């Protein structure tokens, strides 16, 4: 049915694309503009993270003059947070970059939905990166300003946590939609690919 052609020689898929050509162009243009803006944010975050990582002084690792944890523990939290943040931020940049490739560099049958999924995955990766950036900022500030009281890290974490909660409270529908679409994408891919992976090689 999908490969049948009408009297003008078009398949159902080709006919759909021809009748929605302008709408497709408009949707792709908006997605590229959004991805282009978000890739700048991701680039800024990864630049700040790397810059902070190479400027933190490493000395007196076994010192106990930092609040809450030993200095060695704060260094561990800091560098692990920076590493995870950089990985997720880099993955978000890759997702956004693949969504804004010029038309001559992507398959002709790439749909708007696929570009939407790329932006969704990039946005989730960027949010996770921002979360780990909060931990990196707290641990980095504690390592630099060793004179801070014990309530300093708690206060900073509370402010950051409050900012995230306000964001989720205002945009919870958006993130619910994002997460549901991502889970749907994963389930569709698993349904399509898993039987093939589990099949006996002799049956393929």
TrEMBL record:
PGG domain segment(s): 30-142
Cited InterPro entries: PGG_dom (IPR026961)
Bilayer-crossing regions: 33-54, 74-101, 121-145, 151-170
Residue ranges that the Swiss-Prot or TrEMBL entry lists as coiled coil: none
Keywords: Membrane, Transmembrane, Transmembrane helix
GO cellular component, one term: membrane
One matching Pfam family: PGG
Protein name per the record: PGG domain-containing protein
Organism: Sphenostylis stenocarpa
Record lineage: Eukaryota, Viridiplantae, Streptophyta, Embryophyta, Tracheophyta
């Amino acid at each position: 049915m999908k490969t049948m052609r009408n009297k003008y020689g078009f398949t159902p898929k080709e006919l759909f694309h021809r009748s929605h050509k302008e709408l497709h162009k408009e949707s792709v243009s908006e997605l590229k503009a959004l991805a282009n803006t978000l890739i700048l944010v991701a680039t800024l975050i990864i630049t700040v993270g790397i810059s902070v990582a190479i400027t933190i002084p490493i000395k007196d690792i076994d010192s106990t003059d930092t609040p809450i944890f030993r200095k060695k523990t704060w260094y561990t939290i800091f560098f692990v947070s920076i590493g995870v943040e950089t990985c997720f931020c880099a993955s978000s940049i890759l997702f956004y970059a693949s969504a804004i490739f010029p038309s001559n560099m992507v398959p002709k049958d790439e749909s708007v939905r696929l570009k939407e999924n790329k932006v969704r995955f990039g946005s989730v990766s960027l949010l996770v990166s921002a979360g780990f950036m909060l931990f990196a900022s707290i641990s980095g500030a504690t390592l630099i300003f060793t004179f801070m009281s014990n309530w300093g890290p708690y206060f900073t974490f509370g402010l950051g946590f409050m900012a995230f909660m306000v964001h989720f409270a205002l945009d919870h529908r958006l993130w619910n939609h994002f997460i549901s679409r991502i889970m749907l994408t994963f389930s569709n891919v698993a349904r399509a690919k898993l039987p093939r992976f589990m099949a006996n090689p002799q049956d393929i």
